[in-house]
Amino acid sequence: MNNKLEAHTSEYLAALDIGSNSFHFVLARQVGEHLQLVHREKYQVQLAEGLNEHNMLSAEAIERGLSTLAHLTTTTKNIKADNFRAVATFTLRQAKNSHEFLAAARRVFPFTIEVISGHEEARLIYQGVAHYLQNDIKQLVLDIGGGSTECVIGRKLQINAVESLNIGCVSYQQQFFHRQVISKKVFKLAISAAKHQIDSIVKRFKKQQWHSVVGTSGTIKSIARIVNYDNEIQRPITLADLKHIKKQLLKFNHADDIKIPGLKDNRKSVICAGVAILLALMEQLEINAIEYCQYALREGVLFEQLENLTHNNVRVRSVKNLAERFNIDKLHANHVYAIAERIFSQVVRPWQLEKPIYPELLRAATQLHEIGMDINASGYQKHGQYIVEQADLAGFNQEQQKALAWLIGNQRKKITLIDADLWYQLEQEKLLKLCLIIRLSVLLSQQRHQDEQFLTQISAKQTQLTLTLDKQWLKARPIIKTELVYEQAVIAKLSYQLTIN
């Protein structure tokens, strides 16, 4: 970075898309309420190539990824941590040993990496495209990645339908074109397999009746380059174009032999798989033409960062929408949160919970703690945990959503801990401390009183929490007094001490 950039790092936002085929880094300058893209870097890492049939990521693929991250440290060394977001997609979602990659990445890369769900990936891709095009028509956005294909329908910034399909150019290259041999038979098998996956969304998506189709990212970019090789003015990709490209590819017996004007050498190995998937999409969804857009996931991440800086937090909106959908008692939820916030404010420093995500999770968990009531009041916390685990929560990465679900599921009764190795961005011990605060807040408000003055003093040490309660208030509530005794026993099993004065 130049000296000018170093002097004004607070004006810059950056994003890294850790994809199954390529890693994409983008840097933007904040100009008022807008972004000005100033720098891009792309690395073809092909992480998905190292994912075997047991969903284990090979040591070689991990090393390729780590080497790329280490290289990026020079580019990113002057970017503020709060202004940089790195997201990982299909391959690290699928890999059973993704924690090995993330733990090793922590040693070579100074920024946190978030593994996001397929739906979250699709939503962010759509945000990137929608911010770039800014039109007022309903559009279908397609993104064929290395391991998955994201399909989203929306109008302006509002999403109407979203799906992430487990079909990608790298995974299909391994499955159907693994020896780089090209034939009609292999193309037919790949197209049929893709159509089988796409069948699950055809009926739902066609009901939306979009007016235009937009494609983004590497595969569609490569096909658009072939289609427009001799064109001064870029035109859409048509189904006829795609069939012609397939016919051209079938003239070659091996991917290394491919010579098509506009096709870069580094895309030869995956172009057949990409063409097969796009053909399946266009035929199944009856698409006649696709416009290419250069904005995608990384730009969507940048625009969302800008939104969050203007206090328009996507996670807050998701929690609010979910609470409304499940008819949660807002008055009671707000009261539980008020108690939790009061405890939190006194323990945040001794328990080292200053990182912004922890108070945000505390608020979300208390706002949604009764979400399971809509299913059954008996064991509602476990019903709530399941709902939040399965919900499409925009703005939450996989780890944050897992943590939120765990907090809701452990708000009462026995505490079931999750293996510490499964936490990367968050710390298990700090989540446990949040859980203790939520449990006490739920317990102390279980008779649905609206009085907060009973809690007169709070203090904390590393594994100790002391609450001073109004004695008359507690005497008038023998059920709560008994529950506190049980709570002390539960907490003691986890080597924590709860003292009630």
Strand residue percentage: 15-25%
> Any idea how many domains?
3
Named at the architecture level, the CATH assignment of the largest domain is: 2-Layer Sandwich
Query: What's the level 1 CATH class of the largest domain?
Result: Alpha Beta
Q: Main sheet: which strands, in order across?
A: 8-7-6-9-11-10
From the spread of the alpha carbons, the general shape counts as elongated
CATH homologous superfamily of the largest domain - what is it?
A: Exopolyphosphatase. Domain 2
Q: What gyration radius follows from the Cα positions, in whole Å?
A: 26 Å
The poorly predicted ranges are 1-8
Number of strands: 14
Number of helices: 19
What structural class should be given to the helix and strand makeup?
A: alpha/beta
CATH topology of the largest domain: the name is: Nucleotidyltransferase, domain 5
Gap from first CA to last CA: 57 Å
